[in-house]
């Protein structure tokens, strides 16, 4: 995967990047080995033993090479293969660099997504008590995600870009798309889909973001859950305003239909996360559905299974 980050480099080569804010965007070519299905369950990450990592039993980083901007074009061309597709993942709150890398590798592997995988990782301190710091870090990192998006859409070998954002990363994604639309008059035609999993976005802010992005926007899919305890806590921290990923969408049905926004309700899906915040990565049915969402524009592909309330496309 191509990893772009606004994190500060670590003095410890094994850690690679810290949760502090770096001064620019750094690029790495990371290769992660995923253990065989016989030794792990889909949706789960098996962490390696730092002293003796075993790729047969755990996730292992087998390659980590620093890249420069001049390497991006050749990387996109090689990694996207014949389908010319790119998947950009933006992680959420309370996520370390290693957490982001392994989680993205797990999702791409378990969902069977065929695309050039790009991870954008911003400076999270990976501490549940640092919500405010992480929130400010997403604001700080808008320039970095903007550079990544521009690199993808400007590359002639890339024809299709999907952005997949989790939790607080959803707010960062919508802000980057808003900035692109205001600067260039519209979001690039190459960005077809935006998937917001458990988005930690104020519902009023989201409505404003959609309006300011304009009518020529990508299709947005929201993965939500009424049982998301993490977003219920975020609501309390944010002045008791509903978070997009845990709201009741009935009052917004007309708006969702008007703006061609789909909702997948995962409230009743099983997952290992006590807080109910990670169904997108842990539930096997949803992983298969995500793969369908991503490739649904291809020929001979069955439409993905939907869960709960799914507002139809116009």
How would you describe this protein?
This protein has 314 residues and is of the alpha/beta class. The protein has a single domain, classed as 3-Layer(aba) Sandwich (Rossmann fold). It is built from ten helices and nine strands. The chain is globular, with a radius of gyration of 18 Å.
- Compute the number of structural domains: 1
**Low-pLDDT residue spans:** 296-314
Strand arrangement, major sheet: 3-2-1-5-4-6-7-8-9
- How would you characterize the largest beta sheet? 9 strands, mixed
Q: What is the CATH topology assignment?
A: Rossmann fold
CATH class: Alpha Beta
**CATH second-level architecture:** 3-Layer(aba) Sandwich
Average predicted local confidence, pLDDT:
89
Beta-strand share of residues: 15-25%
- N-to-C series of helices and strands: EEEHEHEHHEHEHEHHEHH
Percent in helix: 25-40%
Spatial shape: globular
- Superfamily (CATH H level) name: Alpha/Beta hydrolase fold, catalytic domain
- Helix run count: 10
Category from helices, strands and their pairing:
alpha/beta
What is the CA–CA distance across the termini?
Answer: 35 Å
